[in-house]
Write a structure and sequence with these properties.
heterodimer; A: 440 residues; mainly alpha; elongated; B: alpha/beta; Rossmann fold; 11% strand
């Protein structure tokens, strides 16, 4: 074992440790949310995850990005098999330890090169779509600043990682042609992409080629580890969280909203004098009706926020957004994550206990946004990873109405009518059957 | 002329039980345009000789607009009072004239103690046609272009996309789809209690965006299955001065006209 292996192992341990530490924080943040049971219907949950996350079924409604995304997704997942080999090589100081598989190894490397090419192609088109074609859903103002940079950083990183792979293989091709050491035996040669790049390196000395090969190897593996650690800070976290997020999907009909149990207790007590509500638990905080802050949302709603990759399909289908209203379902998810991260940092800075900072989710999401929603479920339908922005909107409306009495005037009038006449309009309940008279 | 519509109370006093409760809904009871839809539904039920009842003055708002508007208290008050009424009459099966009542009673009443088989009127009509009870002549709308606007709480909310379409196709009409239809259907703008408040600031009304899309097909009829969509689409058609060319009709009205 030489110095490079020790260096590599230290790097690997550091990368895993850093990622674990951040992953733990994310899990802790998600657990700030309220309890919710999503452990039922296990078979249906696996099926949903298989169909929606693994099978990308909801991407297909928009075929062009769906195909490009499949390239990047399949490429990235499968090329990680090669990364596995690199990890072993790096740890024990071998070169291409799996090359003993012979023809099959060549087949794998060829396949990976084709995938890497498709990944690169996909990422280039994605960059063009975002920055040159300026497709509408990538131009909303909630993407200004970091979210836009985040997207570009991810795409450029992936292109660089793939380029390193090609350059590495191309330099190995030349070294093999020169009959140098283990390159001759371990590298199969004649791969579909790198063989066309190798002539560009043909004039270089063997030392330089080995330097390029080693540099690309290190760049690729450090890049992968860096990318892993970038995820918790990025919208790209979806590549991991899409799986649990779809597993924990809401399996009920989309039209069904939750019935607040806290309200049920109160209403039963009002309607039925014999109803005895459970005694209040002094250890539990006072029940809040609806959501003011991330603590009032369920853990699934918070997982939703971390799973969002800001693709904007929700927003581009939202009738409010498409008619110029302030509401953007994507922004609801981004705001929820931003506030949750703020709460998390606050908690980290205060020895693990959140200190009231005088802020809430209401500082991020305005009532004008909330009141623009038609509850049509288009955003929920569109989301490729089954995120539910509508449930957050409704929970926040509940807080506005039931805790702050801040419903729009028209709604207050409607509530009064329902209360007094049993109808949202001012009609007498005695007239309810008049419709059966023709011309009534 | 008054239609023969008996109430649950009347059934009870005569010692009989209806097959199904027709939940009319507030719009179907009070809104001028929607009352015609209620009458069309009654016409269909009477035509096939189904024993149905309404709650009449005992019916009260399902609570949908209160719930979507964030007033969970009011919703649950309404729900529990309605459940008491429905359970008193031992109601088993309900057909609604409105997707909002349909969704609320079907999905949100059970955990509060109200368990019923709930169907939307387009589903009932489809069942009646399928089992041969309702014969459609297919004359009134033969060859006419009809486009169906999916109500959100029927379509995306509960996955009912085909029933209204199959009914329309039985009319031998030329069913023509908007680009945004079925799961991709575009809201009329009334849901989520928007019907009862001013729209937030924007650059277009949602109902005009949707009506424009429907009118681009130059249909004879924009069909729907929701009294709120009815209001929004009718306003939209008026806005574009297309009332002469395009009518907005409920699926129940299409059938009622065809069996006339």
């Amino acid at each position: 074992m030489g110095i490079p292996n020790i260096l590599f192992l230290l790097l690997l341990i550091a990368a895993i440790a850093w990622f674990s530490s951040n992953a733990k924080k994310v899990i802790r943040n998600i657990r700030f949310g309220k309890e919710l049971d999503r452990s039922d219907n296990v078979a249906e949950r696996w099926k949903t995850m298989g169909r929606v996350a693994l099978g990308q079924s909801k991407m297909l409604t928009r075929p062009i990005p769906a195909i490009l995304h499949i390239f990047v997704y399949v490429g990235f997942v499968l090329i990680n098999i090669e990364v596995l080999e690199m990890l072993i090589d790096g740890a024990i100081g071998t070169h291409r330890i799996l090359s003993f598989m012979g023809d099959f190894y060549k087949f794998l490397l060829s396949f990976f090169e084709i995938l890497a090419f498709l990944v690169t192609f996909g990422c280039v088109i994605f960059l063009i779509r975002r920055n040159i074609l300026r497709i509408k859903r990538f131009r909303n103002k909630e993407l200004n600043g970091w979210p836009r940079s985040d997207a570009n950083i991810i795409l450029i990183s992936e292109i660089l990682l793939m380029s390193a792979l090609f350059l590495m293989n191309a330099s190995e091709q030349v070294l093999k042609d020169h009959g140098i050491g283990h390159y001759l035996s371990a590298f199969p040669g004649g791969l579909p992409v790198s063989q066309y790049l190798s002539p560009l390196l043909a004039g270089l000395s063997d030392e330089k080629l080995i330097f390029i090969e080693r540099s690309c190897w290190w760049f690729h593996i450090i890049g992968i580890l860096g990318f892993l650690n970038y995820l918790p800070y990025s919208k790209h976290f979806h590549i991991l969280l899409a799986f649990p997020n779809t597993w924990f999907s809401n399996l009920d009909p989309k039209g069904k909203f939750t019935n607040l149990a806290s309200v049920t207790n109160e209403v039963k007590a009002m309607l039925d004098s014999s109803f005895v509500p459970l005694p209040a638990d002094p250890d539990k905080p006072v029940v809040r009706f609806g959501a003011k802050d991330v603590f009032d949302l369920s853990w699934k709603q918070l997982l939703d926020a971390y799973s969002c990759t800001e693709c904007g399909r929700c927003t581009s289908a939202c009738p409010a957004n498409q008619t110029g209203k302030l509401l953007s379902p994507r922004k609801i998810m981004m705001d929820t994550r931003d506030r949750l991260e703020e709460v998390g940092k606050n908690t980290d800075a205060n020895k693990g206990v959140y200190q009231e900072d005088g802020k809430s989710l209401q500082n991020y999401i305005s009532s004008e946004e909330l009141w623009a929603c038609t509850s049509c479920n288009a955003c929920v339908q569109e989301c490729p990873v089954n995120i539910d922005p509508l449930s957050i909107i409704v929970d926040m409306r509940r807080y506005l109405v039931m805790e702050q009495s801040m419903a729009p005037q028209g709604l207050n009038l409607m509530f009064t009518n329902v209360e007094n006449n049993g109808a949202p309009w001012q009609f007498s309940p005695a007239d309810r059957l008049k419709w059966r008279e023709e011309g009534s | 002329m008054s239609m023969n519509v008996k109430t649950m109370a009347e059934y009870k006093s005569s010692g009989e039980e209806p097959e199904i409760l027709f939940w009319v809904g507030c719009a179907g009871s009070f809104d001028e345009r929607a009352k015609k839809i209620s009458r069309a539904i009654v016409k269909i039920l009477s035509h096939v000789g189904m024993k149905f009842a309404v709650l009449g003055t005992e019916e009260s708002c399902s609570g949908d607009p209160a719930k979507r508007g964030g007033n969970e208290f009011l919703f649950q008050m309404q729900a529990m009072n309605n459940i008491t009424t429905l359970n008193t009459y031992n109601v088993k099966k309900i057909v609604t004239g409105c997707p909002h009542c349909f969704n609320t009673i079907k999905n949100e009443y059970p955990s509060l103690g109200g368990n019923y088989e709930v169907i939307h009127h387009t589903q009932l009509v489809q069942q009646l046609i399928d089992n041969g009870q309702l014969k459609v002549r297919g004359g009134a709308f033969k060859g006419k272009k009809i486009t169906f606007h999916d109500p959100c709480y029927l379509g995306r909310g509960n996955g009912v996309y085909e029933a209204p379409r199959e009914v329309i196709q039985k009319l031998d009409a030329d069913l023509s789809e908007m680009k945004r239809s079925r799961a991709k259907g575009f809201c009329c703008g009334a849901g989520g209690a928007q019907m009862f408040k001013d729209a937030e600031k924007g650059n277009k009304e949602v109902n005009l965006e949707r009506t424009e899309e429907a009118l681009a097909l130059e249909p004879a009829v924009i069909a729907t299955g929701c009294p709120f969509c009815m209001t929004m689409m009718t306003d939209g058609v008026k806005h574009f001065n297309k009332e002469q060319q395009t009518k907005v009709m409920d699926v129940a009205e299409l059938i009622a006209q065809d069996i006339a």
